[in-house]
Amino acid sequence: MATLELSGVTAGYGATPVLRDVDLTVEESEIVGVVGKNGVGKTTLMRTVMGLLDPSNGTVSYHGEDLTGASADERARAGIGYIPQGRDVFPELTVEQNLRMGEHVNAGASRTRYEEIYELFPILEDRATQAGGTLSGGQQQMLAIARALVADPDLLLLDEPSEGVQPSIVDRISEDMRTINDELGTTILFVEQNLGVIRGMADRCYAMERGEIVDEIGGESLTDEDAVADYLAV
């Protein structure tokens, strides 16, 4: 059974559709990327999966259960973690307080993942009493990822993890997401335009154009730089 399945999803803002009849599946323990140029609907897709935007048509299923009408809070409690574009850490709260906010995700979790998080991101333990807003962009991205992982979600949604992050930290985050997938078994759906991140993280990718899924890239095709880059070029 798939962890996440979108069937015929159309969604947008007001009367303007951004997603058009999207079919997408993420199997358990996969890392799946969604690629495309700016404005094709990648962030709208993530917001729809998280329940921040209601589709006008189609269904969103999670572990076989129809969550189309469920709120974002309900989806979080069901085990979906979300790291939005721009990270959205709480700037006035300390690193430790930010992490504690993540405990409200995944109501069915039997444990928290602080030990694993601090092993992945030791800088967060070192900066536990520092205000989140004073961290660097890369450190804030680590904090946002860690906050989403605290309650051991089954599915992690990650929107543009490389945005505003220096290249050396981007490489580290890509490696960490692979570790999270391998060692914690977390299923990951991410959207990205950085070719290195896409090729370094994804098991396979969906390509979007004009709000539609137009291709699926996997296997050897994913190692072909041109096969992916064609959907990223301006």
How are the strands ordered across the major sheet? 6-7-8-3-9-10
Structural class of the secondary elements? alpha/beta
CATH superfamily caption:
P-loop containing nucleotide triphosphate hydrolases
The CATH topology is: Rossmann fold
Morphology call: globular
CATH top level label: Alpha Beta
- Rg value: 17 Å
List the helices and strands in order.
EEEHEEHEHHHHEHEHEEHH
Biggest sheet features: 6 strands, mixed
End-to-end C-alpha gap? 37 Å
Instruction: Detail the poorly predicted runs.
Output: none
Question: Keywords for this structure?
Answer:
about 230 residues; alpha/beta; Rossmann fold; six-stranded mixed sheet; 10 strands; about 35% helix
Entry summary:
This protein is α/β, with parallel strands linked by helices. Helix content is 35%, strand content 26%.
Structural overview:
- This protein is α/β, with parallel strands linked by helices.
- It has one domain: Rossmann fold.
- The protein is 35% helix and 26% strand.
- The strands form 2 sheets. It has a 6-stranded mixed beta sheet, sandwiched between helices. It has a 4-stranded antiparallel beta sheet with strand order 2-1-4-5, covered by helices on one side.
- The model has no long low-confidence stretch (mean pLDDT 92).
List the helices and strands and how they pair.
Elements: E1 4-13, E2 16-26, E3 31-35, H1 42-50, E4 57-62, E5 65-66, H2 72-77, E6 80-83, H3 95-101, H4 114-120, H5 122-126, H6 137-149, E7 155-159, H7 167-184, E8 187-192, H8 195-201, E9 204-209, E10 212-218, H9 220-223, H10 225-229
Parallel strand pairs: 3-8, 3-9, 6-7, 7-8
Antiparallel strand pairs: 1-2, 1-4, 4-5, 9-10
Helix pairs in contact: 3-6, 7-8
